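quick one, 124 residues, struct below
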Amino acid sequence: MPAHDGWLMRAALREDLVTAMKARNRDAVTALRTAIAAIDNAEAVDAPGHGQSSAGEHVAGARAGVGATEAVRRDLDANTVGAILRAQVGERIAVAERYDAHGQTDAAGRLRREAEALMKYVRE
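---
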């Protein structure tokens, strides 16, 4: 698949999020928001000099003005986005099974509905 398929998957997630919000489908909204956040986190790139403290008010390489707070992002391909989504589904199913084992069927059902909302993005 082309590298832009990762971007297309993200766009589809966002579109489905809007649809779920309009339909007031809380489980799908929760799952889609969490998945989008996980993808955003995976795209994040450490800032140059991350963890270094600045002794003065001026920082070498700092920018001012429009776009100064924008950070470079990684470009994720469809395989990477798919792996993130598979992990999201797997986590929900695993926790749902633990909830079932402890008699918390309502919580387990909610997690299964969240997993189902993401299943259409997961390819085996």
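The mean pLDDT is 84.
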